[in-house]
Amino acid sequence: MLCEKCGSETESITCKHCGNVITKLGPFCYLCGQKCVEAETAPLKAGDETVDFDDRVLCSDGACIGVVEKGICKECGKPYTP
Question: pTM of whole model > 0.70?
Fold first, then answer.
């Protein structure tokens, strides 16, 4: 299926509820609103760490949504100030 904006080839799927061929933009059909694609999750591999949200340190800048690693915010780059 061709993209209406850029004209490039895009992935298309057939909605199992309404039967229309649509561009795959997400898990829901944009014509009927029903879920037509299962959420894709990557399986954990040996050695993958799970994220413990209780141990993360949030950016000290009140307007930033980043997480601090090694004393620096990964989002905005500001140093962490307690």
Answer: no
